[in-house]
Design brief:
single chain; alpha/beta; Rossmann fold; 2 domains; globular
């Protein structure tokens, strides 16, 4: 056979052999990519308006898989139970679940409730167990891997939402942020230890808000709404003193915004009553349904899965 024909025959043989060789795809598959990840966003719960704003925020999140919302307390808790949300995700083919606590802080009894529901080894006190029992909430019967993310804590998305709320309120007052002070007011925990942990996260958030907005001074304080009456009264006194000090420093009314998940009795009634009579302006717009909070859900899911599915699917 002439050399040219020999080379052509050899090339044809090699191409045929390559085509017939089975691809070794299975050995290279990443099992995490094969898993269908479901997401449960778990929030405290409130009235219909409160719950609707959480649902709106969750619906705007692009997490690359099925998503459900569950509430721990309030009117929607019995119809949006954690175990039912997990069952619905499994019915949609989820083989693992990321649980996103839509709470301001990871340092709370409600965060421990969520960890307990997801199967973590955490001890709940009698009150936390009672709250779950009253709503008919229990651990899911089905066994599926679940990972609980951190709550909002010091997330940059929280700072973004607060910055937009504050600048919008200043704009309504036709005031330049550089001439005004801003006070961020939150619900807060009961214990002193948890209070310290909340503030450790929220102070950097306040610093970020200052950098984003240019307010002359930005502070944060908590009213500790569920604490014993003397503790709450002292916390409110501190809030009012901070407003007075900020007003003295600027000569202007202080802009007050809440770092609260959604709009309910605390943002609508309690905080306005707490600051009544101070030199301040307040609108009470919470974090949800600001678009940054949907991005926060996406970020938490990405952190938990190590994937970029949320951004890719948008």
């Amino acid at each position: 056979m002439p050399p040219i024909q020999l080379r052509l025959a050899l090339a044809g043989f090699l191409l045929t052999a390559i085509a017939a060789t089975p691809a070794r795809v299975d050995a290279q598959r990443d099992p995490r990519r094969e898993a269908r990840v479901g997401v449960v966003v778990v929030a405290h719960g409130g009235d219909s308006v409160w719950n609707a704003q959480v649902r709106e925020t969750a619906a705007a999140a692009r997490v690359g898989g099925p998503l459900e919302v569950s509430f721990l307390m309030g009117a929607g808790a019995r119809t949006a139970r954690f175990q039912d949300a997990v069952a619905r995700l499994q019915a949609q083919g989820a083989s693992e679940i990321v649980v996103v606590p839509m709470l301001v802080s990871s340092h709370s009894g409600h965060y421990d409730q969520i960890r307990w529901l997801a199967g973590d080894s955490v001890t709940l006190d009698a009150q936390m167990h009672h709250h779950l029992h009253m709503a008919g909430i229990e651990r899911p019967a089905a066994r599926v891997p679940m990972r609980v993310t951190a709550a909002m804590d010091a997330s940059p998305q929280v700072a973004r939402a607060l910055a937009d709320r504050a600048t919008a309120l200043a704009r309504q007052q036709q005031a330049a942020p550089r001439d005004r002070a801003l006070l961020i007011v939150g619900h807060g925990p009961n214990s002193a230890e948890d209070y310290a942990a909340w503030m450790e996260n929220l102070r950097p958030v306040a610093d970020s808000v200052k950098a984003l907005t240019g307010f002359r001074d930005v502070r944060v304080e908590l009213v500790r709404d569920d604490a014993p009456a003397p503790v709450r009264a002292e916390a409110v006194r501190r809030v009012r003193e901070l407003i007075e000090l900020q007003h003295l420093a600027t000569g202007q009314e202080v802009v007050v915004v809440p770092v609260l998940v959604s709009k309910g009795s605390v943002s609508r009634d309690k905080v306005p009553n707490d600051i009544r009579g101070t030199r301040s302006v307040y609108a009470g717009e919470p974090l949800a349904p600001h678009p940054a909070m949907a991005r926060w859900i996406e970020a938490r899911v990405q952190e938990a899965t190590g994937a970029s599915t949320a951004r890719a699917s948008r």
